[in-house]
Specification:
This protein is an all-beta fold. It has no helices and ten strands. Strands 4-5-6-7 form a four-stranded antiparallel sheet, with no helix packed on it. Strands 1-2-3 form a three-stranded antiparallel sheet, with no helix packed on it. A three-stranded antiparallel sheet has the order 8-9-10, with no helix packed on it.
Length: 121
C-alpha cells in the first residue's frame, strides 16, 4: 500500500515494496517517487488526495502547495497538470467530489481566500 507525504520542500509517495533503488519503478528504498520542487515553507501543513480520473485502475495524486496546484501520475510521479495558484497556508488540501451530481468528479481547492473549481472531462 502506497502513501503520500508532503513536507515544506518536497512531496513523495512511499511504497514498502520498494526494497531498494534497484527495484523496478522505485526511486529509492521505500520511495516510489519524489517531487523535490514543491514549496510550503510557511505552514508545512499541506495535504493531498488521490483519485483514478482516467479509469485506468491507477490513482492520480492531486496536490496543492503555496504556489502550484498539481496532478501527478500516481505511479511515476510525472506531473500531468500544473497550474500557478497561490493559496492560503494550512488549507491546501484538495477535495475530489461530484459536486454537481453529473457523474463526473470535480476538484475543489483553495486559492487565497477564494475557492476554485476545475472540471475534469
Amino acid at each position: 500500500m502506497e502513501f503520500g507525504v508532503a513536507n515544506g520542500a518536497a512531496y513523495g509517495v512511499y511504497d514498502p515494496s520498494c526494497l531498494s533503488a534497484r527495484t523496478p519503478g522505485c526511486l529509492d528504498e521505500g520511495l516510489l517517487w519524489n517531487d523535490p520542487d514543491t514549496s510550503d515553507g510557511s505552514s508545512s501543513g499541506t495535504g493531498s488526495s488521490v483519485f483514478d480520473f482516467n479509469g485506468d485502475g491507477a490513482a492520480e495524486v492531486v496536490y496543492n502547495d503555496e504556489y502550484f496546484f498539481r496532478v501527478y501520475d500516481g505511479t511515476t510521479g510525472r506531473a500531468l497538470f500544473r497550474h500557478r495558484n497561490s493559496s492560503r497556508t494550512r488549507s491546501e488540501n484538495p477535495t475530489i467530489a461530484d459536486v454537481d451530481d453529473d457523474g463526473d468528479a470535480e476538484i475543489i481547492f483553495s486559492a487565497n481566500a477564494e475557492a476554485r473549481f476545475l472540471r475534469t472531462e
